[in-house]
C-alpha cells in the first residue's frame, strides 16, 4: 500500500481490514478493528474462514469475492468471531483489484435509530423524506421522524414490523404491496417501487409511493436489510383521477363520453343477444330547430347542460346516456321494446309545468328535441348499426317536423 493510503486506512474511525482477493487471507487491519479483538484479549484472524462464522468451507470466500467483483454485493450482514464471542456485523466491501477493503459496523442493536452506523442514524433522525429501514431476519422496521409526520402520529407509534405496517395499508392494496416486497426479497432484487394507500392518525387514507432498495445482504447474497422512502403522492393521484374523469365523463354535461359509453353499450347488447331480450337505442338531437347555434357560446353551453340534466333525470337506472356530439345524445334502453321506449320518450318532450319552467331558465326548450329510435335486431345487430339507424330516424324527424321517429 502507498504511504498516504496506509495512514488513511490506519486512522480511519471505522473498523476495517483488507482481504487478499485470490486467497481470502486477511493481510491488514486498522487500529480500530484491532481494538475489537484487544478488548476481548482475542487473537486476530488470518483468513476469511476463521473470521466469518458463515464461511463453513474453503471455497466460501471465492464465491463471495466473485459477487463483490460483479457488484452483486456491496455490503453484507454476518457474524464474525472475536475470540469465543460472535458479533453481528455489517461489512461494507470495496473491490480494489488484488484486494478487498472491508469496513465493519456493529449491528448487535438493530434499532437503527440507535445503531453504530452513523449515516443511517443521521438519516433516520434528520431526513425530511419518509425514510425507513427494514431488517428482514428480525422483521424490525425503523422509521424516520418524517414518517411520523406523514402518518400524523408520534415516532413511537410508527410501525415497527411489516405486520404493523400492513395493518395500516388499505385492504385493497395490502396484497399488492406484500407481493412486490416478497418478490424483491425472494429474487434478491436491487430495487422496487409500489403505490398504495395508508391510514394516517387522523383516520384518512393517504396515497403514497414506496421506493425500496437492498441495503445489505448476507454473504450468501440474500437480502438482510432494505432501505426505502415513502412519498406522499395524493396530489398526483387526485390529478390522475381528474384526468380519468375527463376521459370518462363529458366536462360540460357530466354524462359519459362516447368512448366510455361504448363499453356499456356493448355489454348490454351482449346480454340482449344471450337472453333474447329487447333493446332500443335513441338518438336525441337537442337543437333540431337550429336555435342554439344562434346563441352566444355561454348561453348555448348552459342550454345543452340544462337539457342533458333534464333528460338524465328522466331515464331509469339501467339506461345508459352519453353525449356523443356537441348537441346530440345517445340513449340505450336495455330490456325495452319500441312501444315502451316511445312512452318514456314522450314524457321527455312533454315536461310538466315545473320542468318546463326550469328548462326555460336554462335556455332550453323541449320543442327543440328530436328523437330517433332504432331497435335490436330489426334495425341493426351491432352498436354502430343501431346508432346509424337511430341517426337516420332523427334526420327523418327533422325533415318531417316530428319529434319522435321510429326507423
Automatic annotation (TrEMBL):
Record-linked Pfam families: GGDEF (PF00990), PAS_3 (PF08447)
Molecular-function GO terms, alphabetical: diguanylate cyclase activity
EC number: 2.7.7.65
Protein's UniProt keywords contain Transferase: yes
UniProt key word Transferase: yes
Keywords: Nucleotidyltransferase, Transferase
Transmembrane segments: none
InterPro entries reported in the protein's UniProt record: Biofilm_reg_signaling, GGDEF_dom, Nucleotide_cyclase, PAS, PAS-assoc_C, PAS-like_dom_sf, PAS_fold_3, Rev_trsase/Diguanyl_cyclase
Signal peptide: none
Domain PAC per the UniProt entry, residue ranges: 192-245
Domain GGDEF, residue spans: 277-407
Enzyme class: transferase
PANTHER family in the cross-refs: BIOFILM ARCHITECTURE MAINTENANCE PROTEIN MBAA, DIGUANYLATE CYCLASE DGCP
Record-given protein name: Diguanylate cyclase
Organism: Marinomonas vulgaris
